[in-house]
């Protein structure tokens, strides 16, 4: 058991935090996070953390604002309890899609969240697959930005595909798809789409050859699943034999599960950066793989002051 290290969590993704602790070989720290009748969040850390290297595992997923506030309060409590170093481990970084001003008089919310984390007392941030890589620059503290591709690659590596093609659902994900295609020795295709409004997209056409091939749509997150299911339909119309999808963050809000079940997708593989409710877990086309080993290894290396860079690949 490593000395001087503690891992604690709020209510966002306790199962993932427990898996991380199991990998490291330490118990999950005793922390009580509750809510008063008026909605205020109450945090109490029930063990000594003075002089310890503390990692707070908390995704800022739905309910986003509650989970973010829990994280801020836990960090503040640890700072006031004299923890030596506080690392915010945020498997899913909420507000990441609001990373720039796309029209007048709107906030850059992901920068505000970065400022809040720093002001609360975080000394370091560990996260997975930021929606926009430049968010790392919003922090004035070290940020370790991991990628879930090795976890997804491990799942698909032994799968049987017929002439596999990796498909990016938009131009922004082309680099991610290209790297994944190289890992699996597959070809590459791209979906050209036009986004008409938030959470609403319309697939236009497929760039690349998908005829008589197995297609794997790769994305960093799937929210309402509109883009993914429309992409699957477009691939089928262009002659794809089977269509699969993979993502890091399964947000799956609104009608996502129904859309996935009724779509041309055979399977959606997602990681457990977000704790899925029973309805989502019961989705017959959804397979969840864990990033606990990836996070546990990163936490161990940060604590030991050893290199984390090899985990970025």
Q: Helix fraction?
A: 25-40%
Number of E strands:
14
Spatial extent as radius of gyration: 20 Å
Distance between the termini: 27 Å
Poorly predicted runs are: none
The sequence of SSEs as H and E is EHEEEHEHEEHEHEEEHEHEHEH
Q: Indicate the multimeric state.
A: single chain
Overall geometry comes to: globular
Quickly count the helices.
9
Give the neighbour order of strands across the main sheet: 10-9-8-11-12-13-14
Mean pLDDT: 93
Structural class: alpha/beta
Characterize the biggest β-sheet.
7 strands, mixed
Q: Assess the beta-strand content as a share of residues.
A: 25-35%
What's the quick description here?
The chain has helices at residues 14-24, 64-80, 109-120, 149-157, 174-184, 226-237, 256-262, 278-281, 292-303, and strands at 5-9, 31-35, 41-45, 53-57, 85-90, 124-128, 143-146, 164-168, 187-197, 200-207, 214-222, 242-250, 267-271, 286-289. It is an alpha/beta fold and 313 residues long.
Describe the protein's architecture and organization:
With 313 residues, the protein is α/β, with parallel strands linked by helices. It contains nine helices and 14 strands. The strands form three sheets. The protein has a seven-stranded mixed sheet, with helices on both faces. Strands 1-4-5-6-7 form a five-stranded parallel sheet, sandwiched between helices. A two-stranded antiparallel sheet has the order 2-3. Helix 1 crosses helix 9. The radius of gyration is 20 Å and the shape is globular.
